Every structure is written in structure tokens, then in C-alpha cells.
Amino acid sequence: MRIDIITVVPGLLEGPFSHSILKRAEDKGLAKVKVHDLRDYGIGKQRQVDDYAFGGGAGMVMMVEPLAKCIETLKSQREYDEIIYMTPDGKTLDQQMANSLSLKGNLMILCGHYKGVDERIRQKYITQEISIGDFVLSGGELAAAVLADAVIRLIPGVLNDETSALTDSFQDGLLAPPIYTRPAEYDGMKVPEILLSGHNEKIANWRFEESVRRTKERRPDLLEGRDF
């Protein structure tokens, strides 16, 4: 997979892709993330990428010309399965969306900034608009990093144990069950005996029951229309 990210603040994305799972994915040749500075396509000596909004109001708007030039340049180099705009009014990111995007080959992500992008860019180029929640960030960079992490970790071979991603919360519409490691007892608190039994079927049943219980307690909305 290749992910191209367009931003006016490329420095914000240096850290997330230089460490941990995302770095290992690139080292293994399984994924590549390329960050593009929109100011390289800016207008004039000042490399302008934003201007005042028509109709007035506070805040600046990312201009059509630099964005279109950057997007067209990238499109001339490869075909993209999706061109994604990170925006609070997009569809909320969930595990099913991450699963679907992990099957793609080439993704382009546009990070909004200031008051957002000129609407004509959204109309002409964007194929998906994604939000990471009902709140506003200073820009789409951190949201793009969240999306990239959620997607890349699902690519086969990225995680050391490929079954790990399949047992994450939300993969089956439930929250993950409680997990434990050594020691078996700490400060009077013991690991459930079933997890020490070595009986795989009983352990699987316990984990499922605990997932349902935890989901009922913390996210009952996930169980609407489902009968356990």
C-alpha cells in the first residue's frame, strides 16, 4: 500500500510515521507513506495556499489552484483507489471502514487546515470524506495519522501475529474482553482460573461472554438489533 498525504504542516506528521508499527510496515516494504508539502505548489513568491472566504467571516480557506495542482501531479504518477478528505463533517471512521481501506492499493489523503478547503476541490476530486469524531482539530494532520495507523496495521504481515488485528475491539462488533499477563496474582488480584486452564474452547467461550458483558456495560449502542 502507498498513502500520499497532502498538508501545509508536514512537520506534524514526521513523528507518527517514524516509529513503531508504521515504521516497521515501511521497513518490511508492506506500506509507504509519503508526505507532500502543499506550499511546494503555492502561488507566487510567498507560496500562498490560502485566502479570505468569499462572503466574509473569520478564518482563511485553502485555495483551489495549489490543491488542484498537487492532486493532479500525484494522479499523473499513479492511479488512486480513494482520494480522502479529513473533515469533521465526514463519515465517522470505524473498524469496518478501516478494514475496507486496508484492501486498497493507493490512497491519497488531504488534510484540511484553517477553515477548510474550497468546496470545489471536494466536488471535483474527493471520493471519501472521513471524520475521526465529533470535534474539531487545528488541522487534518493528526486525523490523517490516525486513519493511516488504523489501516496499515491491518495489512497482512505488518503485525507480528496476524491474528492480533482480528481480535481487536470492534472487529466483530464487540469490545475486546479483559486481558492479563504474568504474574498470575498481584496485590491479591488473581487472573481468572479459566485463562490458566489450557482449555482453548472454554477460554474462547469465556472471552466471548466477557466481550458481550463489557459491550453491554460500556457501549450498549453496539448491540442494538443484535440478540445474544
From TrEMBL:
Compartments, record wording: Cytoplasm
UniProt-listed CDD domains: TrmD-like
Domain tRNA methyltransferase TRMD/TRM10-type positions: 1-224
Domain of life (superkingdom): Bacteria
SUPFAM superfamilies listed in its UniProt record: alpha/beta knot
Residues that hold S-adenosyl-L-methionine according to the record: G112, I132, G133, D134, F135, V136, L137
GO biological process, one term: methylation
Record InterPro entries: Alpha/beta_knot_MTases, tRNA_m1G_MeTrfase_C_sf, tRNA_m1G_MeTrfase_TrmD, tRNA_m1G_MTases_N, tRNA_MeTrfase_TRMD/TRM10
Assigned keywords, A-Z: Cytoplasm, Methyltransferase, S-adenosyl-L-methionine, Transferase, tRNA processing
tRNA processing in keyword set: yes
Main subcellular localisation: cytoplasm
Single annotated GO MF: tRNA (guanine(37)-N1)-methyltransferase activity
Enzyme class, UniProt record, top EC level: transferase
Record-linked Pfam families: tRNA_m1G_MT
Catalysed reaction equations from the record: guanosine(37) in tRNA + S-adenosyl-L-methionine = N(1)-methylguanosine(37) in tRNA + S-adenosyl-L-homocysteine + H(+)
Function: Specifically methylates guanosine-37 in various tRNAs.
HAMAP family for the chain: TrmD (MF_00605)
UniProt cross-references to NCBIfam families, sorted A to Z: PRK00026.1, trmD
Quaternary structure and interacting proteins, as annotated: Homodimer.
UniProt-recorded name of the protein: tRNA (guanine-N(1)-)-methyltransferase
Organism encoding this protein: Echinicola arenosa
Lineage of the organism: Bacteria, Pseudomonadati, Bacteroidota, Cytophagia, Cytophagales
Gene from which the chain derives: trmD
